[in-house]
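I am still getting used to C-alpha cells and would like to learn alongside you. Please make up or recall a protein chain and show it to me in full. Would you write everything just below, so we can both look at the same thing?
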Amino acid sequence: MRFSLALLAPLFAGFAASAVNVPRVISTNHGTLTAPTIGTLVASQQSFPFGYKASDWCQDGYSPITVWLLDYAPTTANLNATGQFTDAAYYFGAFLIGNFGLPPIGPNPVPPPTLTAPDLSGYAAGSGLYLAVVETAKNCPPGNQPAQYGLTSTQLTTV
C-alpha cells in the first residue's frame, strides 16, 4: 500500500502546531522572599537586601529564578508564555539556586545578598514598587512536562 505525503501533511501540521503552542503553566507553589520585607525603602542606585528561599516543588537539582521590579502589584496573569514580565520597570536578572547542597553552576549566578535599585527618578517619593521573583520548575514528574512558573512579590517604597 502506498501513502501519499499530501494525505499525511495535515497530521504533521497539527502536530507541529501543538508542539509550538505549549501552554503557560502557572503553579501555586513558589518560594519565599526573605528580604526585602514589605515597605522596605529604596532609593536610586542604592543597594537593598535580597534573599529568596526556593520552594523546589518539583525536586529539581537547581531552581532557576528571575527577579523583576514592577510599578504595579503583579499577578500570574501578568506573566507571558515564558514566565516573564514584558512591561517590567527593571529586570535584575536570572539566577540559579542549587538544591540539596549542590554547588553553583553557570551560566546564571547564585542570587546576590543585595540588589541595586535602578534610576527611580521617574517615581515620586512614597511610590509603591514591587519586587517580584518568578521561580521556574522544569522537570516536574512524570517528566516531559512544560515549565511551571511560581510567583511571589513584596511591595517596596521609594524615597
Notes: Confidence is low (pLDDT under 50) at residues 1-22. The chain has one domain: 24-158. The domain at 24-158 is CATH 2.60.40.10 (Immunoglobulin-like). Strands lie at 25-26, 32-35, 40-42, 47-49, 51-53, 62-70, 90-98, 114-116, 128-137, 148-158.
